[in-house]
Amino acid sequence: MLDDTSRRNFLKSAGVALTAAPAVVPALGADKKLNIAWIGTGTRGNYLMQRFFAVPANKEEVDVVAVCDAYKGYIARSRDLIQSNGGKPPKTYEDYRQLLADPSIDAVVIATPEHLHYPMFMAAIKAGKNVYVEKPLAHTIEEGAEMVKAWQKSGKVVQVGTQNRSNTLYQKAKEMIAQGMIGDIHYVRAYWYRNSLDTDPAWRYVIPPDASTDNTAWDRFQEGVKNKRAFDKQRFYQWRLYWDYSGGISTDLLVHQTDITNYVCGKTVPLSCAASGGIYRWTQDDRDVPDTFSALYEYPDKFHINYSSYFGNDHYGYGENFMGNEGTIEVLNRQVLNFYPETFRGKAPEKIKARQEVHIELPGNDHKAVEAHIRNFVEAVQGKTKVIADPIIGQQAAVGGHMATLSYRNNKKIYWDDKTQKYRFS
Hints:
The protein is 35% helix and 21% strand. It is built from 14 helices and 16 strands. The strands form two sheets. A ten-stranded mixed sheet has the order 14-13-12-11-7-10-9-8-15-16. A six-stranded parallel sheet has the order 3-2-1-4-5-6, sandwiched between helices. β11 (318-324) and β12 form a beta hairpin. The longest helix is centred in the last third of the chain and has 20 residues, at 391-410.
């Protein structure tokens, strides 16, 4: 269960009423199809649209009526995807504000680079749209706080794209921990390891051969960026590698795993974080963000997360080890769950010895989780349920990620005050 005190403290400090936005909004009408639009149809946006169309109910109940992107090639691809799934040709936009001005659009998916989440979200809420926004919620802690405040005042449905919460294996892990299967838990080890050939550096996504200022709206990409630059294909198409647009490992990878630890173990935000790392593997290009990263978190009630990521070896892959005093639950690659009771070197008490190992493998479950997360958003907009990852939860997840980035970039341990929603360095 989430820490309600921490949630109330967040709302107080953000200057909004403790009466939250409606948990379930009024239904839009049993026979009315939803009109949804995509803002951002690049790699992630295209994937989300594929997963959206993989659910038959979405095709029956929702029309994708508009798409927006700063690269014309991505717009064309998304238009083809919509029509190949039985949809009508969508309206297309380069300027998201023009899309938001359409009163027939009920909801938008924002799947753009991290630094654009804030202006696009705020404009969408002002326009009266329901929003699915990719993680991290925002590029900074301060932007995220403003977004939560705007959402609370709007009464709109907002889902943050931390889709692990919709993964059945993590839901099972949460249930098993609540049942006492691993006893008291004070320690979680989380990791995400990757590797690639020297000819395919990490996060160096393929740049479209035709990319140019004629089909790439560079000025729109630079919205809100302090350090304006001349057109740069690498920064546009490989934006995760630069601090101006991304928090790197912290907000692209780590945030998923601290968030799901919060969910599984009933936590919210850490007390402190100490992070370190650097560019150890991919040293031959101009990237800003580290490819080697570790972060140590302390939470209230004697709880610790040990996080690590390295882009030079993928043997251990992706996973979380929930390590209780009486057993361990590990979720690996979002598709495997294992439970092992502690043996106490052959002296385990009978109640622990009686617990049987559990092994569950669900290939493709990571895709199913994304589909379930999007479906949860659709049903929430229809008034049938409430979202599993609202902006308060999204901000709590983002705070952990931003703390790691700030600790690393300042080479100092960072502390979070949950009452004031402020951080300080040691």
